[in-house]
Amino acid sequence: MLKIAYDPIYAHPLPAGHRFPMLKYELIPAQLIHEGTITEANLFSPTELDEATLLLTHDKAYWEQLRDLTLPPKEQRRTGFPLSAQLVEREIRIAKGTVDGSHYALEHSIAFNVAGGTHHAGRNWGEGFCMLNDQAIAANYLLDKGLAKSILIVDLDVHQGNGTAQIFEHEERVFTFSMHGDKNFPFRKERSDHDIPLDDGIGDEEYLALLKSTLPKLIEKIRPDFIFYLSGVDILASDKLGKLSVSREGCKERDRFVLEQCKRRGIPVQVSMGGGYSPDIKDIVEAHCNTFRMANELYF
């Protein structure tokens, strides 16, 4: 069964300027249920992540500032969010959804988190609407529990996974791959194990050719026993922050290719949704829903 982490707190109410991007967290599961792709039985609501697991990834001092709501104003501005207890609860539930999803992926080959992909959060900082790095937390959890020995993180959000790269810069068991806009946020990039910086305006043909010539070789080289996939849809031409020119069909083909690579090799994969900032919310929701539909088609 396809298991999907979702909790109403994912759509945490924020000041007016932040509410629009949060709508998708309610609309994605609603659309998938409406069309019959999933039922309520596919959804699970994560609890709060325990501190011991969180501290496998994030520095204690940074976490305590989040937990105690004492993060300095300058650091709060860097996250893009005003700090609140509900926001911190949202972050730790998202991270727990990815940890739990990793267990479901080991059992069912694939699992999703409607939110997540908080790849700008480093060991001791939050940035770009990311405060805790859900896939990094889950990767360290799998390593700590002996549930995986070699992990590949495939980050295809339009923005570089700088926090993920920093967290794993000295961890040989985790290989970070980020394919992202070269002239886009974050403007100070970290070094992933394999980065592909993309020129503005790149379209379907070139984007997919780069992915298809790279990912299979990385998998063969690394031979991971678990993959995390960050499937941001901010690569769309319609995205107001993305600067690329990938169509919705191109984005869907991207998802098909990545998931087929995992399924063909029998590698469990956990998928977090990442960014999407098209002006029309329907474009965001439809592109994200395509990722779920593709998984349902390939696996179930």
TrEMBL record:
InterPro entries: HDAC_classIV (IPR044150), HDACs (IPR000286), His_deacetylse_dom (IPR023801), His_deacetylse_dom_sf (IPR037138), Ureohydrolase_dom_sf (IPR023696)
Entries under Pfam families matching the protein: Hist_deacetyl (PF00850)
Keywords: Hydrolase
Gene3D superfamilies: Histone deacetylase domain (3.40.800.20)
Domain Histone deacetylase: 22-289
Family: Belongs to the histone deacetylase family.
Protein name per its UniProtKB record: Histone deacetylase
